[in-house]
Design brief:
There is one protein chain. The chain has 176 residues and is α+β, with helices and mostly antiparallel strands. It has a single domain, classed as 3-Layer(bab) Sandwich (minor pseudopilin epsh fold), CATH 3.55.40.10. Helix content is 35%, strand content 25%. The strands form 2 sheets. Strands 3-2-1-5 form a 4-stranded antiparallel sheet. Strands 4-6-7-8 form a 4-stranded antiparallel sheet, covered by helices on one side.
Length: 176
């Protein structure tokens, strides 16, 4: 075999270098690293039968909006009627009444039993308020829910950015 044939063959080889492939893989991995956590917020990828996820997303969104807009927000939940509405510190009484009238009714598959706060005795109140502060924290609260005959608890912690969903009813004695 002559060495001339080997030299001419190497000029005709096409393809990517190892460096080019490495750069493409690094860029693709970086894009996926930042975009995949965002997919869980898209309703298409969440459980279509579970409407409790809507409340979780609302709570997480309120925590973010309070910091971004530098406003204190309140989420009001009326357990008797199943209404949820949002107010902020800039609203006067008339705007707050309007927000209550324009509130969103929870899905018929969801029943909010009560909301538990630390150190609060059991109460028969039907309207509860959870505060989300512009400084980034919120009230510590447990929202007891029944969805499709399944006991659930939404745990809102003051310094954590996301609410936690538990598949049973928990109380503050269970958290400490």
């Amino acid at each position: 075999m002559s060495t001339v044939g080997i030299l001419t063959r190497s000029k005709n080889i096409s393809g990517f270098t190892l460096m080019e492939l490495t750069v493409v893989i690094v860029i693709t991995s970086t894009l996926l690293f930042f975009s995949i956590p965002m997919l869980r917020d898209i309703p298409l990828f969440s459980d279509p039968n579970g409407r409790t996820g809507d409340i979780v997303r609302l709570i997480n969104d309120l925590k973010k909006r309070a910091v971004e807009k530098n406003l204190d927000f309140s989420m009001h939940i009326d357990t008797g009627s199943g209404f949820v509405w949002i107010t902020d510190e800039t609203m006067n009484d008339e705007k707050k009444r309007e927000a209550k009238q324009n509130g969103k009714r929870l899905s018929s598959s969801i029943t909010v039993l009560d909301i538990e706060y630390p150190g609060m005795m059991e109460t028969s109140a039907s309207e509860y308020e959870i505060f989300f502060k512009k400084s980034g924290y919120s009230d510590f609260a447990l929202i007891h829910i029944i969805e499709n005959k399944k006991n659930l608890t939404l745990k809102i912690e003051p310094f954590l950015p996301n609410a936690q969903l538990w598949d049973r009813h928990i109380h503050f004695e269970d958290c400490i």
